From TrEMBL:
Its main location: membrane. It holds the Pfam family BPD_transp_1. This is Sugar ABC transporter permease. CDD domains: TM_PBP2. Keywords: Cell membrane, Membrane, Transmembrane, Transmembrane helix, Transport. Belongs to the binding-protein-dependent transport system permease family. The chain crosses the membrane at residues 26-49, 89-109, 121-141, 173-195, 224-241, 275-298. Gene3D superfamilies: MetI-like. SUPFAM superfamilies: MetI-like. One of its GO terms (biological process) is transmembrane transport. GO terms for cellular component: plasma membrane. It is a multi-pass membrane protein. It is found in: Cell membrane.
Length: 308
């Protein structure tokens, strides 16, 4: 028996079922279907309805009556709309330069410092406050006879009699400053994250070559922060085009509607004047402008990065 070879039992393997690519595609579509339905119900359908209302005359009661392009013609002939368009452009320029510039400055100066995170904390706290709360605080500071005017008067400095929230375009400029107070901290945080992601090897090589200060920032930090800067500027661009809460809380677009933005004009026409057709026309115009501005900006930035 010991000399006999015992044959090992044969192992039978069952072949695994082969799934076709089509089944994976249908599974992926099934998982993405709820998200598609949510986007369609909450975004696309309301936009299509708003577009339809923009071609009608509607006061919120009864049924809309078709007027074609009359709302759009009246919109471009309205001096209040042109004023809000001008103010929105001022918001775009101010929101891109001031909060982004201050955030980059704070991040660059505090990065690498001892207790740098504690130095950035006071700038980051306002971002946790809602836009309505920011508007309430700065309205108290900037109103006629408010905190700023009283402080300037007590110190004997000029500007105590300035009407910060009444005279245009001064009211728009000071509101951009209030928004910058809220947004600079989070921009600084994003830029610090970008600085931390920069490899150390090229920075150390630049220091051995004698680069420091402005030269280090210009030739090393700034080029490597370009992808993140694209994101920060893009977010600021979109946010500035739809500015509403701070303007409405601080001035309600006045006095005389001289501080309105496109978003405030849309709200004013729709819910104050009950002109749903005119308000929808402003909403469609604002949506199209925001979409085109974002797409154009991103395409230019991506094409510029490809050529570098």
């Amino acid at each position: 028996m010991s000399g006999l070879a015992v044959a090992a039992p044969e192992q039978t393997t069952t072949p695994r079922p082969v799934r076709r690519r089509g089944s994976y595609r249908w599974s992926a579509r099934g998982f993405s279907l709820p998200a598609v339905l949510v986007v369609a119900v909450l975004l696309y359908l309301p936009f299509l309805w708003t577009t339809w209302i923009s071609f009608t005359e509607y006061n919120g009661l009864g049924s809309p009556s078709w007027v074609g392009l009359d709302n759009y013609r009246a919109m471009f002939d309205d001096p209040n709309f042109l004023t809000s368009l001008r103010n929105t452009l001022i918001w775009v320029v101010g929101s891109i330069t001031v909060p982004v510039g201050l955030g980059l400055l704070i991040a660059t100066l505090s990065y690498g410092m001892r207790f740098g995170s504690w130095l950035r904390l006071p700038f980051l706290i306002p971002y946790a406050i809602s836009g309505v709360a920011v508007g309430v605080v700065w309205r108290f500071v900037l109103q006629n006879g408010g905190g700023l005017s009283q402080a300037l008067d007590a110190l004997g400095l000029p500007g105590a009699d300035s009407r910060w929230l009444s005279d245009a375009p001064l009211n728009t400029i000071v509101m951009i400053g209030a928004a910058a107070w809220q947004q600079s901290g989070v921009n600084a945080l994003l830029f610090v994250i970008g600085l931390q992601s920069i490899p150390r090897e090229p920075i150390e090589a630049a220091r051995l070559d004698g680069a420091s200060g402005w030269r280090m920032f210009r030739h090393m930090h700034w080029p490597m922060l370009r992808p993140l800067t694209t994101v920060v500027v893009g977010l600021s661009l979109v946010a500035s085009l739809k500015t509403f809460d701070i303007v409405w809380v601080m001035t309600k677009g006045g006095p005389g509607r001289n501080a309105e933005t496109l978003a405030v004009t849309m709200y004013e026409e729709t819910f104050v004047n009950s002109a749903y057709g005119a308000g929808s026309a402003v909403a469609v115009f604002l949506s199209v402008v925001t979409f085109l501005a974002a797409i154009t900006y991103l395409r230019r930035q991506l094409s510029a990065e490809r050529t570098v």
